[in-house]
Design brief:
Layout lengths: L1 E3 L4 E4 L2 E5 H7 L13 E5 L13 E6 L5 E8 L13 E6 L2 H5 L7 E3 L6 H11 L5
Parallel strand pairs: 3-4
Antiparallel strand pairs: 1-2, 1-8, 4-7, 5-6, 5-7
Length: 134
Amino acid sequence: MLYNLTKQKIIARQPLTAGGFGGRLRGLMFRASFPAGCDALLLYPCRAVHTFFMRFSIDVLLLDKNLRVIGLYAPLPPGRCSACYSGAVCCVELPAGVIENSLTSAGDQLALIDSARSCSISASFEKNRRPQTK
């Protein structure tokens, strides 16, 4: 589950992680809607997204390594690109309207609550948060 700690709102109950080059490349392209049973797509690592070859608008959150919102698009129509955020490590693609309904804004702190389908991105964030030892 993706939860907005700042606003105390659920953003997505069933996020799906698109890790690896192929999953991030395909994303939501050529689909008519989000995959069944999925209400968000987490792209990791990712600093920008596009909606080329998509048939519908999406909301987009760009998050830093601490899961803080550093950029957002509500909505991003088909055939467009987001800006590239140098501090972003993750993009969250959501159905259009979710950002407005959840009152999410830049600076909000999010939390990713582990589930079978989203634990890989959570583990990656935990790895990035730990100090490196030599």
